Amino acid sequence: MANGAQKVTVRLADIFAARARIAGIARRTPLVPSQALSARTGGEVRLKLETLQDTGAFKVRGAANAVLSLSDAARARGVVTYSTGNHGRAVAYVAQRSGSQATVCVSRQVTQGKIAALEATGCRLRIEGNSQDEAAQLAAQLERDEGLSVIDPINDADVIAGHGTLGLELLEDMAEVDTVVVPVSGGGLISGVALAIKAANPDCRVVGVSMDRGAAMFESQTAGEPVLVEEVTSLADSLQGGILLDNKYSFAMVRDFVDEIVLVDEDQIARAMAHAYWNERLILEGAGATPIAALITADRAKFGERIALVLTGNAVDGAVLADIALRHRHAVAPAAHSRAA
Ligand SMILES: *Cc1c(COP(=O)(O)O)cnc(C)c1O
Questions:
Q1: What band does 2 get if pLDDT is binned at 50, 70 and 90?
Q2: I want to staple 25 with a disulfide (CB 3.0 to 4.6 A). Which of 64, 237, 265, 272 is the partner?
Q3: Range of 134's domain?
Q4: Residue 226: CB within 6 Å of ligand 1?
Q5: What's the pLDDT tens digit per position in 167-224?
């Protein structure tokens, strides 16, 4: 966080304040019924479409709250981050929309495709070092040397509060929801969403979902403290990465507010992406499809009758999705709404 002023905790009031602050930049997304998943599970399943954010993922919520919480002077000096994925894109987008300038630090290991996607946002790129850790160190150095404000993807209370606005919207649209299913990586999204939802309705279950390989938050909760995990490539690439050993908020918030984290494997993620494509007419990246995978796979009885799935993002390579869709053409649930006779 900027100028070393660490917040101690994230409060419900911070989420309400975030909602007003980000209204001009982050969209209020719809919660649409899924006829196919409702028919398949016998419940009422609705989909929270974060794919409709301008950057294609929910990350714009937290980025907007963090950047707009800065003083005018700090915003004018510029912001810096070290995420190459949806967070980096969101910070660059928000900076450009709010009269700031974003610098994104990336290691030399990062793929050309990701660099091109970041370049397209108009941010300043610093390509140095050989790991995500070194990129983070460079961001901290730019904070010291150039007075830039770090917008941290994990240890930032304003980012978590911004993500929590999704929970407020969800409750307004589906007050009687029994279970909300949310993808988990660093845990900022589910922390904010769970705080908002449990405050209004402690009986609503908040279920996290991660891929079964390298699930840092799951392993950390099992161990009782933040632990390092080996990164393994996954279709859910936006869920890869750790939760930081000096995790300040999300580890404790997940421990206190989240009921369970479900793990899904690569085949289940692929089928969920294919289901979304064929039956929902939705393009989802692997991470964004994990709640569908969890619903199809897990013991549905635990989820209750009214279920909301947070579909977090759509950053998937078209050729990858086409391949998955064709491979799983016949393995997915028939669309309940397909051409009534
Ligand atoms: C970042 C991201 C997640 C995970 O969010 P965390 O706050 O890191 O847990 C899930 N899905 C998508 C598409 C993301 O970009």
A1: very low
A2: 64
A3: 60-150
A4: no
A5: 999 999 999 999 999 999 999 999 999 999 999 999 999 999 999 999 999 999 999 9
Is 235 near ligand 1, meaning CB less than 6 Å away? no
- Nearest ligand 1 atom, CA 315: 13
Picking from 150, 165, 190, the residue at the C-terminal end of a domain is: 150
Distance 184 CA to ligand 1 centre (A): 6
Q: Would the CB of 188 count as within 6 Å of ligand 1?
A: yes
Q: Is 287 a pocket residue for ligand 1 (Cβ < 6 Å)?
A: yes
Residue 162 lies in a domain: yes
191 and 126 share one domain: no
Q: Is 44 found in the same domain as 30?
A: yes
| CA nearest ligand 1 atom 14, residue | 238
CA of 339 from ligand 1 middle (Å) equals: 35
Query: From the CB of 208, is ligand 1 less than 6 Å away?
Result: no
Q: Is 142 in the pocket of ligand 1 (CB under 6 A)?
A: no
- How would you write the chain as a 3-class SS string? CHHHCCCCCCCHHHHHHHHHHHCCCCCCCCEEECHHHHHHHCCEEEEEEHHHCCCCECCHHHHHHHHHHCCHHHHHHCEEECCCCHHHHHHHHHHHHCCCCEEEEECCCCCHHHHHHHHCCCCEEEECCCCHHHHHHHHHHHHHHHCCEECCCCCCHHHHHHHHHHHHHHHHHCCCCCEEEEECCCCHHHHHHHHHHHHHCCCCEEEEEEECCCCHHHHHHHHCCCCCCCCCCCCCHHHCCCCCCCCCCHHHHHHHHCCEEEEECHHHHHHHHHHHHHHHCCCCCHHHHHHHHHHHHCCHHHHCCEEEEEECECCCCHHHHHHHHHHCCCCCCCCCCCCCC
User: Could you give the number of structural domains in the chain?
Assistant: 2
Are 48 and 97 part of one and the same domain? Answer: no
Are 265 and 309 part of one and the same domain?
A: yes
Flag whether 311 is in a domain: yes
7 falls within a domain = no
Q: What global pTM score does this model have?
A: 0.94
- Provide the CATH number for the domain around residue 233: 3.40.50.1100
Task: For residues 275 and 327, state if they share a domain.
Answer: yes
pLDDT digits (tens, 9 = 90+) for 21-54: 999 999 999 999 999 999 999 999 999 999 999 9
Q: Note whether residue 5 is domain-resident.
A: no
